Amino acid sequence: MAALAGILQELGHRVSGSDEQVYPPMSTFLEKLGITVQIGYRPENLNPAPDVVVVGNVIRRENPEAQAVLEKNLPRLSLPEALNHFLVAGRQSIVVAGTHGKTTTTALIAWLLHATGRDPGFMVGGIAKNFQSNYRVGTGPYVVLEGDEYDTAFFDKRPKFLHFQPHLAVLTSVEFDHADIYADLDAVKRSFESFLAQTPPASSILACGDAPSVREVCRQATGNVEYYGLGEEVTWRAAKITPGNGGARFTLVKDGTAWGEFFLPLLGVHNVLNATAALAVLAKTGGGPAELQAALLGFQGVRRRLEKACELQEVLILDDFAHHPTEVAATLAAVRQGYPGRRLLAVFEPRTNTSRRKVFQKPYIAAFAEADLILVREPPDLWKVPEEDRFSSWQLVQDLISGGKKAFYFPDTDHLFHSLCRGLRPRDVVAVMSNGHFDHLVTRLCQALGASENPGL
Q1: The whole model's pTM is what?
Q2: What is the pLDDT of residues 283-295, one digit of tens each?
Q3: Of 78, 138, 173, 288, which has the fewest CB atoms closer than 10 Å, so is most exposed?
């Protein structure tokens, strides 16, 4: 929604918005754009009446501002409808979908298009550091969009990505998530099948062939499917992956023949997969290995995706968006790869509608395998989940301890923060993982490390 606000303003429209709370990086992003955000939802926020109201999917029908939109019969659009109308507007869209990896892959494609002179528009679910923005209008023939499987709006419960008609689609992964709207993995699969089934027959689809669930979903595709991955039975394969200084070197193989040698300045095999998808997309738009080698070297990543927040008193703080067990495992494996020999502390807040539910109670145990020390807080707003469905951070910690891990449970962020500060040692690497602000824990840790006198450090 912040990206859309910026797009609309750049296109010459006057934009304002409402939210319950706004926190960095989006709060500072909107502030720099000069876009007014009203804190709290009230009917008077719609005075004078706007020409159109764009309604995000977190807004429920009973929201007082949504009720005013309905009562006044104001013109309304959902986020994907607005993107189609204002940003795509006849250009060719590249849509990246999947349970994991879509934000980084979208940002990678947008950067590679930009760096090779194709001037794309894009919308991504995070701040792309190369642009210091999560959107760009652009003037080139392509618009790159992050295709979300979450529902569209209170008046349209379909997944958002069903609104897009991609010229080229990328499918990174298919796993169970969003337990508040999907009953099980089969329901998730059906939504992705619908996405691929409604892509134009002339479209191209690049899908991660390493995942059986992705291949199963792709059987419903109407477009031409090519697979990428680490395995042998793919068109585009990342081979000879070698960790390097702050990233990884790899060979991109197409149809069994080396296509190019690349260095990705991001940690983790999961990011090599993301880069493989992005490079394959660029090849389909006419990009060649030489120009893409240089372009990939310049990719700076996405805010809050294994982002270095600070390194003070020989302690490194990393900020990451991981919340699904697969993402937690991939993040910690990447940190272990990038900082061998250092103590790895995993600090986790189960905040999403899914991670607050017990559906992942057992999978989270294996997700923390790479961590030396694990700190888990009680899920916030647990009261929103029926008691019989609630995830237990305390039980996770007990299971981790039973498995030989050193783990601690905390009822809230304040207790976790103070305990963490008392236990930090030189050369520690702290990976803070949450899809929310985690009560500004990362900022507080950096401030504590930077204090001239801190008895806990």
Answers
A1: 0.93
A2: 999 999 999 999 9
A3: 288
